[in-house]
What does this fold into?
Amino acid sequence: MRDEVVLRAEASVADLDAADVLRRGLSGEALALVVVFVSPQLRNPAVLLTRLSRALAPAQVIGCTTAGEIGFLGYAEGLVVALGFPARHFRAEVLVIPDLGALDAQSAIGALIRARGALARKCPGWEHEFVFLMVDGLSAKEDELASALAPGLGRAPLFGGSAADGARFLETFVFHAGLALRNAAVIAAVRSECPVRAFKVDHFRPTETRMVVTGADPARRRVHTINAEPAAREYARLLGKDPGQLTPFTFAAHPVVVRVGGHHHVRSIRQVDENGDLIFYSAIDEGLVLTLAEAGDMVAHLSDALDALSADGPPAAILACDCVLRRMEAQEKQLTGQVSALLRAHRVTGFSTYGEQWNAMHVNQTLTGVAFYPPKRP
Amino acid sequence: MSGVRGLLDPADPPARQTEKLLSIVEVLMRRVEHGTDLSGAAYAQFERAAMLEEQVRVRTQELELALALLNDSNAQLASANRATEAARRNLTDALETVQEGFGLFGPDEVLVLCNSRFGEQLRDIQPALVPGLSFPDYVELASLSDALVLPDGVTPQDWAIQRLRRHQDRSTVFTVALRGDRWLQVSEHRTGDGGTVILQTDITDILRAEREARGRLLDDQARMVRATLDHISQGVCIFDAGARLIGWNQRAEELLAVNRQRFRAGLSLGALLERLAERVQPIEVTRLRALRDWASQPGARASLRFAITRDGDVALDAFAQEMPDRGFVVSFTDVTTERRAIAALSRANETLEARVSARTLELGEALGQAKRANAARARFVAAASHDLLQPLSAAKLFLASMEDEALTDRALEALDKTRSALVSVETILDALLDISRLESGRLTVRPEPVPLAPLLARLAEEFAPMATAKGLTLRLRATQAVVVSDPTWLRRILQNLIGNALRYTLTGGVLVGVRMGSGGLRVEVADTGPGIAETDREAIFREFHRVNARASASEGMGLGLAIVERASAVLGHTVTLESRLGRGSRFVLHLGPAADAAPTPDRAIAPDPPRELPSDLIGLLVARDADMRRALAHLLEGWGVSVLDTPDTTEALALIDEIGLAPDFVLIDARPGDEEDALRLMRDLTARHGPLPARLLSATRAEALRLRALRAGVPLLYKPVDTTLLQRFIAASRNR
It folds into this structure.
């Protein structure tokens, strides 16, 4: 019997036998849940997901598409990464929200509460739980969804990530029961005998430079004007940059934050539209005061945060949702190797997102996840 | 660029700047006034979530802290409750297992708890003994109880007052008497907090047991003393300080033979002694008086011991000893049997001494006789060796010479038997003489280095004909060993061993070998004969013992091994025997360590040469007839001559060649027809060694032969041989 708390496997999307490779990597244990992160380079992910679901049944296989994966070696692309949760240590209940456009908050809350209740009955001796969310990253519904689910969480922490589509922003999928779903979300309520610890890491601090959103389309997360000027041009002016040179790397290095409840929260800019609008990764509104933020030392922050997780002994594994902008920042600052080494050293598995969920909030430019510790044997 | 100034682009004209400011202000005002309208629902949800998140975080922390505190105190409370409950239960259980009555009064003098045995003995008041009762009430109840036996003249009130006074002490123990001869021990102790613990122990059984034990002890001791007194074989009389009899055993009555009616308690010692004095020897009366004086002596008295004889035949040993209370014990022991035994012993001793001296005289005589007999035997041996053997040899020579005479067949047969008889006599005589010499103790042996090789070679030669005649093989292993021994006797020993082996072996053969072992050299004579049974192994070394009676007298009288054993003993050698029935025997002669020096040659052959002959002579003897050859050789050896004897002339020549030394003289026995061979030998010897003194023994008295012999340098000596002539010839041969 393998003694890992969580099983890990990965395969290249170029590998025709990727499903077999993953199945072998996860064999040897009865599994309660399998989570896969699939590179958008894979042409027809539903085929892979169907094969995996059959091969690993009765374990439920869920997952989503990515903007890059975090595998055995750290940052990677073109992979399918899988995490297996052994039934020895875990029980899971999976909920699907098939159409975010018709989200019924009350029924979602009810379903979540029932799922958690069922888990508590199945394994009353296991006291650790968390809720993991994967949601369509182009739905613009993450804030609403996270907020809606919050009343059903009880004491369980929620964390998750928005499914991504590399740098294309065309279509993102979440997977459930061999199906690739759009405009949908998959929620796994998990209970374990292993101690778990949810965490969120960012490394920005606000500057003195502020701006006011004067014109926006909140439903589409578009900002037309800032300070009564076209948004992209004004953002570029405040940065002292040529509006024509704004790239995702710029957005990654210079996010804007809002101040709510005494804390600053990153609102990341996804892209510049042809008409000069700025499209955001998260909810936006007119009349918001945006503050420019500057990045701290990304590697040091990450290292400190991961070390803090090892304070009472190193975790057996970490599942992480890492904002795609962090990957870009690392790439821009040529820190990819150092960050990968840290992720590798701390056994981090996960994917690059279009946004992260943290309890009731949808946030940007964070690394959010959960650490798993070996069970405490009496 | 900082603060709100950054909101405006300094490059804009003022009108534009104002316009932008107005727009910004408008949107901000709208946001402040409307908060969140429907269009911004998503952001509003985020905003609420963020606010909520912070509040939840703080509340959660507070809640967790409160919960933890609550849990802790709950746990402590529960464990405290459990401990209290357990302690109470343990205490109750423990109190019930206690065999005593137990009562606990609090510091306020009120009964807190008691077990079911508390006050059990005071049945009438026990139901009233329940928690809540005060101590004075308890005492009063007890004092009035029917079960309590109060000491004479003590009222219940008095008892209660006394009891309450005792209660003032920190700790007290007392015993109360109860009806029915029962006893209760009450112990009272003050607890740390001023309360009182009362223990009530029923000690009735203990007291009764103690009482009984004490009574039994006294009875037991008396019985034991009585039994001991009756058991011992001594008579014992015990007197008190006034010298009056207070105890005695039956044995004392028997030993002193005093009338039973007289023997009573209170009898004075004086009266007892007076009666006794009439029955002892007059001389012993003073001893009885001494006892009376001893008894009336003031102060400490040392033990007194004396003997008396009652009625003339019962011997008594008396012993008086003081007791701690100035009484005393007199014991009497019957020693009659011992006295008689001692008397008998001394009588027996006298008789024995007389018999010993008589036997010593007899033995002295016997010894003298033995000495005389031994001397006689020694004289016989000396006489026999010289006076018996020599004529016998001569007789044989004469007999041999007669064979050449023309005789009738009957005469020849008689002659043959005569010769056989003579040989047998000679053999037996030889052996007997050997044994006599060995046993006389006068034999002097002269140990010297003896090389075994020539000795064994000669034995091989000697026994070869006998072996051949019986169809046996006789092998002697070559050796270079030299031993220290007497050569003559060594030869005799080996001769007997080999002869014996050949004699008793029917098939196979005899092997003689010399070995060097850790114990020294040993000669082994092994045969393939019938073997010797375990039971016979000692007997064969005795004289006249033969294992197989078939052997004829001429083959010996079984003296061989007797000689071997005695000779070996004299020489310091030992003989051992290993044998397996049906397989053969092995006699081993252990000779001790090997010698280094070579011996002087030929001494072995002539230990005792006659005075009239020179010693160290070597004679060549050629005789085809075996008996003739043996007889002559024996004769010559008896004179101290070393004899090289051989049956035929050819061999004789080879022998001399081999030795490479001319003999001192030559004797050739010629039977009719053999003369020519003899003359030829003589010529050959002369050719090799020059003229040698020689004689041809012949019964043929023909002149022609005489002349031819004379010419050949070998004059005739007529048979029967005149030993005097022969001796003279030999003596002369030395002087040439």
Remarks:
- Residues 549-557, 599-611 of chain B have pLDDT under 50 and may be disordered.
- The first strand of chain B starts at residue 101 and ends at 105.
- Residues 662 and 689 of chain B are 6 Å apart (CA to CA).
- Chain B touches chain A at residues 1-4, 6-9, 19-20, 23-24, 27-28, 30-32, 36, 39-56 (CB under 8 Å).
